[in-house]
Amino acid sequence: MASINWFKYASPVTFFPLAGRLIPWFAWMAAILAAIGLYVGLVVAPTDFQQGDAYRIIFIHVPTAWLSMFLYVVMAIWSALALGFNTRVSAMMAQAIAPTGALMTFIALWTGAFWGRPTWGTYWAWDARMTSELILLFLYLGVIALRNAIDDPRRADRACGVLSLVGVVNVPIIYFSVKWWNTLHQGSSISMTAAPKMAAIMVSGMLIMSFAAWFYSIAVVLARVRTIMIDRERGAAWVGNLAEVKNA
Amino acid sequence: MTKHANPATAVSAGAILPGIRWSLSRDLRIALRSRAELGVQLLFYIIVVSLFPLATTPERNLLATMGPGVLWVAALLASLLSLPRLFASDYADGTLEQIALSPYPLEALVSGKILAHWLTTGLPVALLAPLLGVQYAMDAESGFVLAAALLVGTPILSLLGAIGAALTLGLRAGGSLLALLILPLYVPVLIFGAGSVDAVRAGLGATANLSLLGAGLLVAVVGAPFAATAAVRIALD
Amino acid sequence: MSEFLAMGGYGFYVWSSYAAMAVVIGLEIRSVRSRRKTIVEEARLTVPEATTSLFPRGHA
After folding, report:
1. DSSP readout, chain A?
2. Residue B226 predicted with pLDDT over 50
3. How high is the ipTM of this complex?
């Protein structure tokens, strides 16, 4: 570990080919794990005796919900590195994570709604987790919108960095406040803690799907960061020398 | 980036309070010169609050349930609406750049601005709230708690809002973008603030809510001026 | 097979969720690909820095 000079990869020139080599690996891992996970989740795992087959939604709901929160933290960490060390690659990584994070949040909300309808009898309940997830989506959209509103990419990097750091401090506070609000209005909400004890096979299916979602996110973020690098380093010699740019 | 190492700001820890005082009095003077604008902002608050019963129901029980929430949402919007005033005009005419070069630390100047913003928006909103609560069949105790919660909560709105105002300085879609950035961050304040009156009505007492708001205020006072100053520096670079 | 698709009566909810996931991922991959194509195209049209100067021998 210590022998690797991590700062070597803090430059797009070295990071770009590294990302290119990693993408197929992560993409294939994601595809294989997703195939196994879907088979386990949809075919092997038995029907839940309480929720019937509706529970099979959690094989995509839980992984995307985890990722949506985790990606925000990862984005904030890259932003902090970018602000602290003024490294271009970190800022570009933060920029590349935001859309994937927002999409994961969206899927978590959507699947949560379609799980809630058969389970709770309603598409939307002001449950603490769903409400926090909704606000998390707004936080992601805020970062993306701020990025789009600023023309100078360096200013955008730093502004989005400050915003995501403020956001990451707020996420736990928001979750705590929504939970607090939820318990105060117990009558109007539906308890979500009634999750049934899951059989081992269900848990393993969910874990496999989580890894698949992880690998997919890494692959797509790396692919996006490569695009961002070409875009922002356009005109630099190393971009001009790339095989895909050189050869028509 | 080199501005961070401005030797004048590095040695002037003792200039923090004078810096706050200087920018506070400057912003207050400017605000008082445009009293009409402040009046319009308060009117906006009053009108928004008065619209809700017309849009829903004059039924007293429902109004009493909705009241704290409506007043808080209106306070959020009033704060949001006045945020561009915090830095925008100083940024547009180049004053902000001049201020940043003054011997006072920029953090202190930004803090003074935030304090001035709260004194001219949050404070009047909080003081007006018990009066508007009468429209919502709010009893005296609820009105008092509401005002107390707003007194503790609206400074947080100004503090967090300053970060958003600084981040969106000089951007085309400034106003609506500011709303998108800041309103999600306001959620905890809204919940604990409006919840304080609910707690009183439920017989639980507002202490827990008010303490949480107070804790939030402490965190915001310690953190937000630095984040807002960083954002101002980013906009000025 | 139809029993599998029915999902014990919850087919609509289960498949709506999985379809949404598939659509979102498909759209994301497509958007990254198409964005990459336009960016590479633009980069090709941009003259590299080393030769942007019209008078590279110090006339500027």
Report:
1. -TTS-GGGGGSHHHHHHHHHHHHHHHHHHHHHHHHHHHHIIIIISPPBTTTBGGGGGHHHHHHHHHHHHHHHHHHHHHHHHHHHH--HHHHHHHHHHHHHHHHHHHHHHHHHHHHHHHHHS-S----HHHHHHHHHHHHHHHHHHHHHH-SSHHHHHHHHHHHHHHHHHHHHHHHHHHHHHHHHTGGGS-----PPPPPHHHHHHHHHHHHHHHHHHHHHHHHHHHHHHHHHTTTSHHHHTSHHHH--
2. yes
3. 0.87
